[in-house]
Every structure is written in structure tokens, then in C-alpha cells.
Design goal:
Number of helices: 14
Number of strands: 18
CATH class of the largest domain: Alpha Beta
Largest sheet: 6 strands, antiparallel
Shape: extended
Structural class: alpha+beta
Helix content: 40-55%
Length: 603
């Protein structure tokens, strides 16, 4: 009777314990699903924001590659001669435009005279040639002729293909015209279409211009007013496009960034929407990241894991109670204790084995994440370099224009000397032409080297060569803004680095210094070199305003910039490059102005 009563109490106690565990487990399962779902959504949102930033960097680099072309061609003497009606110049310029269009993969490049008539075009040999067509009604022509430059997105009147028209005025010696580069984003859209994240670009009116979903082109992100619709139809910007709203609706949740999207007539799906301003004023990049089953799967996995843990706990409790019953039935306490010890050792061994397996999976995932991060970082470094090229393009064009004009003058003089049989004077003119040609070669060579993607291999670099290259790229801006450069001779110091990436760091730092000196009277940039047996320090200082403490404390944080149009990535990328070199990039506190120190290892 005593044994039976004891077993009954133990059974009732087991029932109470299992009931409490079940109730707590149900609550824990529900809570685990909610928490896991929120964490999965937050992680997806961070990943979507990074993806939108990368999309924007690629879009920006694509634009900057083409913006340099009309700037350079607007000052080309052959363009001016073609506008004057010189037949040989027109034929030569047609061929040059055809070759240039093919090399940079532009849709078309053409020259329009002041009356709106096309006089030369890259497609001059095709049945769809623009030569002879009148584009005087186009906004990009009228605005560029009046204001100097203009950019417009519209349908082509001949090709019926949409594209961005980059127009710049040509004006010299009483001759006026407009050089136009048409850019089609077909390759970029195809690249975006390979991703599971739909992406599109809208203008200031909310009209979709560039998109990875072909059916969305010329739909709108909002309602257009009757006046806007009339203006668009009159200008023939988008042909007969319906200009109807996008199939995107706000998601019924408290998350404002979530939308319901219908693609190709399918069922609505939920996406996270990220919007990023682009390099063109008023244009906005939209990237839609599918939520799919990420949140629900995370919640389900968490609930399943909690339920399994609950089942194991209940099973463990039941086994413990049953073991206690068996222990009560046994008289050999020592044997029961030994059996319990063996079971505990087996459970600990299993936990360690499972923990080791989880650790291996986590290590594999971490290595894969680091590889993706390195790839994205390399793309951002190249995008930052191309953005810098766009900023110094006008200066390089001015640097090239001066020796080109001098070559023309010396060639004319040399011909006159030859007609007068003054061969010595003609030889001097030709030697001057050779010198000017060498000058153009040094400028374009430095620009080409700077634009080239770095290989990543480190070696011996002469510090003065890297400084000379950076100053050459910024020489026009330095002269235009009357900034004095104080630079003591650095000798033949060799450092361990890569020439292209080291120049990128110096261009970023010198460009930031020039930005800081915009409103400073008698602006000065000082370069100082200090070397020891193992280390070379290069200090770049300016006499502009000092950095506020709030900005100085977060200089090297991503996307933190004091400039209105800055991405906040220049200093971050520069510091990462210096870390790859085994050196450092630091902000050195000073009594006045701003000082950055580049520390390199001696080669």
C-alpha cells in the first residue's frame, strides 16, 4: 500500500509538472515566432538598404562614364569646322563619332547646328541615320543652346527606343551648335532583371524611366495633373505611353516601407521598398526586395525549434520520473547511480558534437559573407574612383584644350614658314607641336591610369610619382580656385603600396581639402613628408575651417558626410585601402585648419 500510494503521488506530480511545462511551452512558442519574425524582417531591411546603395553606385558610375563625352567634344575644333559646313570635316567627324560610339557603347552621338538640323552623326552610314533630321523641337536642343547644357530622358523619334540625351553647347568663333550623346540603359536593365529584386528609376514627376520590369516603363508612381499630361504629349517625350499608375500599393501593416506589388498579372506579393536619390537631380532609384516567406519561415522555424525543445523537455521530465520509479523499485543504489552517470555523459557528448557541427556551419556562412562583402567593397572603390573622374572631367578637358589650340597655331605657322622656305623656323614650330603632344599624352595617360581598375598587387611605389599624378588630375581646379600648394621635395622615397589605389586616396584627400577651402581667403594646401627606417608619414593640411567635434568623431563612419551631395564613403574607402597597404589614415588634431596623415610602410 505504501509503495502504491508513493507511485500515485509521483504520477500526479508528473502530471502537474508536464501540464505547467506544456503551458509555458505554448507561450514560449508563440513569443519565439513573433521575435524571430521581427528579427528576420529587420535583417532583410538592412540587406535591402545595402542592395539599394550598391544599385545606385552602379547607376552613378554608368552615368559618369558618358557625361565626360559631350564635354570633351564641345571644344573639339573639328566639331566647329563641321558646323561651318566643311565637307571634309563633316566626313571625318562622322567617322570619329561612329568609332567613339562603338567604343563607349553609346546609342548615338550627333552634332546639331543652331537651326536644329543634324550635320554629323555616329549612325551616318545606317538607313536610320540622324544626318539631315531636324531636332529643333526637342527640349534638350533648345535648353542646351540657351543654357550651355541639358539632360533629358525621352523616346527616340527615329529608333523609338527610350534613352537619356546628354546635350552640350558648341560655341566658337561665331559658330553655335549642340553635341548630343544618347545613352540607353538596356544593358543595365538586363543586369538588374537577373536579380530577384525589381528595380526602377523615376523622374521628378514620378514617371518610370529605367526599369528591370519592361511592362513598368512610363508608368507613374503617382497621379499626373492634366497640365503635366498635356505638356508630355506636346513634347513627344514618351510617345503614346498610357502613363497609368504602377501596380504597387501600400502594404496593410505598420511598416511603411512594405508594399504589395503585382508583376505580369500574377498574384500580389509583399516587398520592402528602398528609395535612393540618384546622380540626376529629381531622379529616384527604387529597389524592391521580396519579403516572400522569409519572415514566416523564420517564425515557423523558431516555433518548431521551441516546440521540439518543449517535447524534449517533457520527454526528459517523464524519463527522469520513470527513472526515479525504477530507482525506487531497485535496491541496488550504486548500480542506478552508475547508469545515471553514463546517460549524462552521453547527453553531454551529443551536445558537444552538435555544437561543433553548428560552429562549422557558422564558419562557412561567415567566410561566404566576407567574400560577398569584399566584392561589394571593390565595386564601391571603383564607383568612388569613377565619381572622382566625373568631378575632374571639366578640368582635364580644359587642360587638353589649351595644347590642342597651341598645336593648331604652331601647325599653321609651320606651313607658312615652309611656304617661305624658312625651314629652321618651321622645325621650331614642329618641335613645339611635339612638346604639346607629349603634354596631352601625359594628361590623358594619367587619367587613363587613374580610371583603370586596381589589380590588388602591392609593390614598390615612388611616393613623389603618386603625389605628382594626383596633383596633375586636380591641376586645373587648383589653378582655377587659386589654391597655393606648399610641397617640399620628397626625394626618392619608396613605399609599399599600389600606384593606382594610392593616387585614389590622395585625390580623395586633396579633393576634400579643396572643398573645405571654398570660402577661405588665401587658401593653402601643405604637404609634409617625414620618414623613419620603417615608416613614411605624409601629412596633408589646409588652412580652412576646423572640423566640429561632432563631425571629427565620426569621420570614418560609412554614409556620414558633411556635404549635401556626398555619399560619405570617400574617407571610409580610403582608410580601407590604407589598411590593405599595411598602413593607416588618421585625422590629426591641429590648432587651425584640418590635417590628415597617410602612414605607409617603406619598401
Amino acid at each position: 500500500m505504501k509503495i502504491g500510494n508513493g507511485e500515485g503521488k509521483l504520477t500526479r506530480r508528473l502530471g502537474w509538472i508536464l501540464g505547467c511545462i506544456l503551458l509555458i511551452g505554448i507561450l514560449a512558442t508563440l513569443a519565439a515566432g513573433i521575435i524571430a519574425g521581427r528579427r528576420a524582417l529587420a535583417e532583410l531591411d538592412r540587406s535591402a538598404a545595402a542592395s539599394a546603395t550598391l544599385h545606385n553606385a552602379v547607376f552613378r558610375s554608368e552615368l559618369e562614364k558618358f557625361r565626360l563625352v559631350p564635354t570633351a567634344l564641345a571644344s573639339d575644333p573639328e566639331a566647329v569646322a563641321a558646323l561651318r559646313g566643311d565637307a571634309s570635316a563633316i566626313t571625318s567627324f562622322d567617322r570619329r563619332l561612329e568609332q567613339l560610339s562603338g567604343s563607349i557603347r553609346a546609342a548615338a552621338i550627333y552634332l546639331i547646328d543652331s537651326r536644329g538640323r543634324t550635320v554629323a552623326a555616329s549612325n551616318w552610314t545606317l538607313p536610320t541615320s540622324f544626318v539631315g533630321s531636324n531636332y529643333g523641337f526637342r527640349d534638350y536642343f533648345r535648353r542646351a543652346l540657351a543654357d550651355g547644357s541639358f539632360e533629358q530622358f525621352a523616346l527616340g523619334t527615329v529608333s523609338r527606343e527610350p534613352g537619356l540625351y546628354l546635350a552640350r553647347r558648341v560655341s566658337a568663333n561665331g559658330v553655335r551648335g549642340v553635341i548630343v550623346v544618347k545613352v540607353e540603359f538596356t544593358a543595365l536593365e538586363a543586369e538588374w532583371a537577373q536579380s530577384t529584386e525589381p528595380a526602377f528609376v523615376t523622374d521628378a514627376r514620378g514617371i518610370v524611366l529605367v526599369t528591370s520590369v519592361p511592362g513598368w516603363r512610363f508608368l507613374t508612381d503617382g497621379d499626373l495633373s492634366p497640365t503635366e499630361r498635356t505638356t508630355i504629349r506636346r513634347n513627344l517625350d514618351f510617345g503614346n505611353a498610357p502613363l497609368t499608375p504602377l501596380p504597387i500599393a501600400a502594404h496593410r501593416s505598420r511598416h511603411a516601407a512594405m508594399v504589395d506589388v503585382t508583376i505580369s498579372g500574377g498574384r500580389p506579393q509583399t516587398y520592402l521598398e528602398n528609395e535612393v536619390p540618384t546622380a540626376i537631380h529629381g531622379w529616384t532609384l527604387h529597389v524592391l526586395t521580396p519579403v516572400g516567406t522569409v519572415v514566416s519561415n523564420a517564425a515557423t522555424s523558431a516555433r518548431l525549434a521551441t516546440a521540439m525543445a518543449l517535447a524534449l523537455l517533457m520527454l526528459g521530465v517523464w524519463l527522469i520520473v520513470r527513472r526515479q520509479q525504477r530507482i525506487r523499485a531497485r535496491e541496488a543504489a550504486a548500480i542506478a547511480a552508475q547508469a545515471t552517470l553514463e546517460r549524462e555523459v552521453d547527453a553531454r557528448t551529443r551536445d558537444l558534437r552538435e555544437a561543433n557541427q553548428r560552429l562549422q556551419v557558422e564558419m562557412h556562412d561567415r567566410l561566404a559573407s566576407e567574400a560577398r562583402l569584399q566584392e561589394a567593397r571593390d565595386q564601391l572603390v571603383q564607383a568612388n574612383k569613377l565619381a572622382s573622374l566625373g568631378q575632374i572631367a571639366a578640368g582635364v578637358a580644359h587642360e587638353i584644350n589649351q595644347p590642342v589650340a597651341a598645336i593648331s597655331s604652331y601647325a599653321h605657322s609651320g606651313r607658312q614658314y615652309l611656304d617661305l622656305s624658312r625651314t629652321a623656323d618651321a622645325a621650331d614650330s614642329f618641335e613645339s607641336i611635339a612638346a604639346m603632344t607629349d603634354r596631352i599624352g601625359s594628361i590623358t595617360g594619367e587619367l587613363r591610369n587613374f580610371a583603370r581598375k586596381a589589380t590588388g598587387a602591392l609593390g614598390e611605389v615612388r611616393l613623389d610619382d603618386a603625389i605628382d599624378g594626383a596633383l596633375l588630375l586636380l591641376r586645373d581646379r587648383i589653378a582655377r580656385e587659386a589654391v597655393a600648394i606648399e610641397r617640399p621635395p620628397g626625394g626618392d622615397l619608396l613605399v609599399r603600396a599600389e600606384r593606382i589605389r594610392l593616387e585614389q586616396v590622395l585625390v580623395n584627400l586633396l579633393g576634400n581639402a579643396l572643398d573645405a577651402l571654398e570660402d577661405t581667403p588665401e587658401p593653402v594646401i601643405s604637404l609634409a613628408v617625414a620618414a623613419s627606417s620603417d615608416i613614411v608619414d605624409l601629412d596633408i593640411a589646409n588652412n580652412g575651417p576646423m572640423l566640429p567635434d561632432a563631425i571629427a568623431g565620426s569621420l570614418f563612419q560609412p554614409f556620414n558626410s558633411s556635404k549635401e551631395d556626398g555619399l560619405g564613403l570617400g574617407l571610409v574607402i580610403s582608410r580601407d585601402i590604407m589598411t590593405d597597404f599595411g598602413g593607416t589614415l588618421t585625422h590629426v588634431p591641429a590648432d587651425h585648419g584640418v590635417v590628415f596623415r597617410v602612414r605607409l610602410m617603406r619598401a
